[in-house]
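Customer escalation, tier 2.

The customer says the design service returned an amino acid string that "doesn't look like it belongs to this structure." They asked us to rerun it and document both sides in this ticket. The original structure tokens are below, unchanged.
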């Protein structure tokens, strides 16, 4: 096949209902950013898109739980995620959002085009409905037992335990997360996309790379686990899927109040609307990238999105017409953390914004470790001990050490002037060997093998260290000082090579290294003779590229993880056993002080005196009680509730409140004077 002329690269739109964690980074982002940085160094025409996915029931659910609006949720996380990416040095051309007007218009137009073509079937069906809350339940509002793995709290669309894609009616003993009661089935009307009618086309496209008989992509370049997941879906036979939902948060279905587009008829179109916004901002053509057939479209995603990007979205694009189809979807598998699945709801995660705040000098360390263990073809695991070992034994001991020795010796012997001498044949031969690793990096990145590519980059530093150890310039300076000039020029030229080829993996390190070398050029080396053009004639001040990770960091992070208590969602039941009741330590407490939570309008932070301990309790009563009016009250509280962080403050208990139908709250106060710490039973 002919080489395509330009690249359109997307990373899965992060869902704006929580912060980014390292599993996200390792899944759909670092790989894509590395790919894009590499292509740009090669001078390729690349357009790189990402943005926040801001619709869907999980956001309305979270908003409900936190007592704020969905818009407040997405504003908060959109900004936080965008900032994290910026701080990590990501090269997006645009980081957009699906709550924007241009996205709503684009998604509605897309829907209308399909509707005008008569592609949808409008069907009435029965769906779960919460009688108490009087609304249809989105998939995320229903939990129940997973029919595949028996996990007790699978969602209506997916089981987070086994990763199975589900429909709500498959759940065993479904429960509405709104009322906690069993939902009923009630009739509603939706627009169905007859995926089954596209089964033959999508099979041919996926399995042979053919679109109407014309070769589109090389199937042999696709990852086996990606094709495997698609094949098993196709084997089961595609079924019609509703493209609309009964929900009030999302892209409204034109002319159908109360209905919004299904997230998979919404989020991936975000790649298109982001391109439109970028074109407006920069007076460019978005169609060039989305519509010209010599564009290579690559979607980077995690494995939970495979069927949507490999089956549903391509079918939508094909039915709409006029768009290029993905050339490849190099999905990654999952990253686990300290032998457990990463979980947002259980707070079992390394949060990217927290990492950046704690270790602003270690951003490349994180990129490096996550690429080293990237879950390219099977699940992988991050541990802090392994992180420490990789930083210390690889970044510090190999790359940092080689660069440091080269520049320090050049400063020491020549005051930073890089010797302008002819190299010996063996030196050129050595540099040419480095260039073979550069070619290895190219082949690996172009085949989406980022672990191997990064390892080849480290091999360049590794042979550099061996070269210095063999040549021993620190000894030869006394016996053959002319030879030392050649050795150090060779070493500095290799540093210049590294300053370029490390950039896709370690952008901050690349910047430091180029600053030390006084480098102006910024391009991918095609022969070793170019290395010397990637530096100036004199070195600037030496900078440390990496620093050792001490045991204390590993200990702190491991402790932090272990102390983040799991929030276990227990199934709701009507009766409790007496022994369960007996486990609860209810007490009279005196509220010693109260103040507003710095980050949440609904929360008060209370200091509550128990018998011989003062509990910090975060309580959701701030909209009805001022700090002044609660201070000094004697109240009833649960003293041995598992401590849990609420908006950053550890809460050690719960104040008991009565609530009437109007939602008014009242404290339970003892009917006669009781000391703080008196038992309630
Ligand atoms: Zn399951």
């Amino acid at each position: 096949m002919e080489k395509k002329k330009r690249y359109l690269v997307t990373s899965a739109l992060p869902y704006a209902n929580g912060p980014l964690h390292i599993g996200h980074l390792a899944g759909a982002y670092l790989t894509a950013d590395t790919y894009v940085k590499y292509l740009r160094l090669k001078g390729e025409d690349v357009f790189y898109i990402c943005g926040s996915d801001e619709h869907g029931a999980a956001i309305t659910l979270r908003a409900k739980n936190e007592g704020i609006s969905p818009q407040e949720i997405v504003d908060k996380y959109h900004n936080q995620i965008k900032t994290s990416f910026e701080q990590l040095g990501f090269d997006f051309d645009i980081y957009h959002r699906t709550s924007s007007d241009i996205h709503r218009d684009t998604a509605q137009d897309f829907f209308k085009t399909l509707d005008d073509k008569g592609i949808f079937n409008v069907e009435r069906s029965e769906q779960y409905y919460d009688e108490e809350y009087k609304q249809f339940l989105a998939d995320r509002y229903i939990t129940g037992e997973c029919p595949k793995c028996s996990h007790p709290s699978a969602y209506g669309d997916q089981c987070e335990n086994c990763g199975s894609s589900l429909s709500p009616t498959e759940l065993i003993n479904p429960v509405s997360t709104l009322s906690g009661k069993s939902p009923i089935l009630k009739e509603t009307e939706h627009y169905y996309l007859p995926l089954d009618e596209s089964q033959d086309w999508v099979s041919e496209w996926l399995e042979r790379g053919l679109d109407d008989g014309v070769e589109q992509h090389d199937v042999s370049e696709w990852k086996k686990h990606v094709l495997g997941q698609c094949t098993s879906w196709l084997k089961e036979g595609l079924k019609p899927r509703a493209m609309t939902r009964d929900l009030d948060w999302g892209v409204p279905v034109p002319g159908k109040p109360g209905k919004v587009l299904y997230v998979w008829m919404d989020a991936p179109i975000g790649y298109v609307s982001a391109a439109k916004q970028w074109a407006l901002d920069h007076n460019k053509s978005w169609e060039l990238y989305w519509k010209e057939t010599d564009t290579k479209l690559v979607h980077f995603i995690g494995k939970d999105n495979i069927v949507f990007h490999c089956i549903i979205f391509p079918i939508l694009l094909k039915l709409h017409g006029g768009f290029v189809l993905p050339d490849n979807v190099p999905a990654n598998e999952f990253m686990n953390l300290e032998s457990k699945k990463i979980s947002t709801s259980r707070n079992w995660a390394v949060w990217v914004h927290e990492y950046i705040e704690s270790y602003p000098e270690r951003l490349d360390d994180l990129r490096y470790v996550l690429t080293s263990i990237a879950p390219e073809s099977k699940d992988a695991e991050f541990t802090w001990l392994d992180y420490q070992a990789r930083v210390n034994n690889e970044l510090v001991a190999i790359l940092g050490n080689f660069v440091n020795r080269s520049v320090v010796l050049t400063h020491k012997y020549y005051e930073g002037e890089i010797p302008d001498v002819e190299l010996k044949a063996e030196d050129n031969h050595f540099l040419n060997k480095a260039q073979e690793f550069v070619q290895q990096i190219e082949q690996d990145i172009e085949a989406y093998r980022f672990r191997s590519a990064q390892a080849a980059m480290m091999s360049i530093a590794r042979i550099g260290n061996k070269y210095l150890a063999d040549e021993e310039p620190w000894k030869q300076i006394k016996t053959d000082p002319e030879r030392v000039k050649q050795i150090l020029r060779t070493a500095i030229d290799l540093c210049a090579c590294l300053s370029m080829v490390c950039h896709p993996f370690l952008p901050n390190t690349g910047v430091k290294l180029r600053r030390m070398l006084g480098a102006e050029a910024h391009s991918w080396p095609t022969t070793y003779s170019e290395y010397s053009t990637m530096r100036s004639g004199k070195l600037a001040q030496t900078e440390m590229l990496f620093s050792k990770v001490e045991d204390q960091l590993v200990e702190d992070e491991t402790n932090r993880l272990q102390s983040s208590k799991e929030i276990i969602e227990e199934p709701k039941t009507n009766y409790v056993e007496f022994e369960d009741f007996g486990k609860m330590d209810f007490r009279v407490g005196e509220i010693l002080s109260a103040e507003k939570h710095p980050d949440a309008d609904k929360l008060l932070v209370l200091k509550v005196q128990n018998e011989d301990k003062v509990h910090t309790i975060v309580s959701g009563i701030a909209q009805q009680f001022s700090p002044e009016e609660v201070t000094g009250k004697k109240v009833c509280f649960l003293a041995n509730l598992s401590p849990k962080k609420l908006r950053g403050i550890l809460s050690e208990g719960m104040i008991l409140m009565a609530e009437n139908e109007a939602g008014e709250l009242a404290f339970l106060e003892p009917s006669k004077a009781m000391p703080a710490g008196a038992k309630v039973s």
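Tier 2 assessment: The sequence is consistent with the input. The pocket of zinc ion is lined by residues 146, 148-149, 151, 154, 159, 161-162, 164 (CB under 6 Å). The two ends are 77 Å apart (CA to CA). Sent an explanation to the customer and offered a walkthrough call.
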